Amino acid sequence: MSVKDREAQVIIFLCNMNHLSHAVLSFPNKKMMVGQFLGDGVRGKDFNYFEPEIRAGILLHRWIDSNLDSFQFIQQIRAEIRSEVGLYSPVFIDILLDHFRAKHFDTLGMGKLKKFQDDWISMLLPFENQMSRRLLGYYQAMLKYQWFQTYESIEGTQEVLIQMAMRLPKSDGLRVASIKMPEFVTQFENDYLQFWSEFESVFFKIQSEHMKDLPK
């Protein structure tokens, strides 16, 4: 595998970092939440091997990844940061979204972030043997570093970006994103709340269609 191919694989892996947002959208259906997480590691039609609610979560995860960029808010962020963050712009957008979701967790009616994180981690434990190798690595890192809570503050999110930049090729854009994180938050935070409301509304319609197809 060439250096270019390895870099492309790293980008593809990191473009799916917004696990908090995925989990919140299918709350409180635990099996759909599991499917939302496992969805990063399930390829092709392999979702058919899972029970119906987990399968629905996997398909909803795919819907989110396929449709997120169609929202004007995401297009606006991408246009604004592309010249500075470059190759890792999709990664930073995912992380920025989870920062906003973590910061506004309580005010958006989800209770305490730590309890949600602890419950989510416990919920996934029985499914470790169904996780792809990289998802298992992410899950184990979550156990160690408590990333959802880390995303709650600008400083914690900056540290995540710096740690990623230290481990990834051609990652100067992530260092820039870390430095400019306070500026980006100021620029986009107000519009995030409207975006989240719009995105939830569309997502819940899609989710309700999947739920109609579940066995009674």
Strand fraction equals under 5%
Overall mean pLDDT score? 88
End-to-end CA span: 47 Å
Structural class: mainly alpha
Q: How much is the radius of gyration in Å?
A: 17 Å
Can you count the beta strands?
Answer: 0
Could you state the order of secondary-structure elements as H and E?
HHHHHHHHHHHH
Main beta-sheet strand count, sense and barrel state: none
Descriptors:
216 residues; mainly alpha
What would your notes on this structure say?
- The chain has helices at residues 3-14, 19-26, 30-38, 52-67, 72-85, 89-103, 113-124, 133-145, 147-150, 154-167, 172-179, 181-212.
- It contains 12 helices and no strands.
- The chain is mostly helical and 216 residues long.
- It starts with a helix and ends with a helix.
- The longest helix is centred in the C-terminal third of the chain and has 32 residues, at 181-212.
- The protein has one domain (3-212).
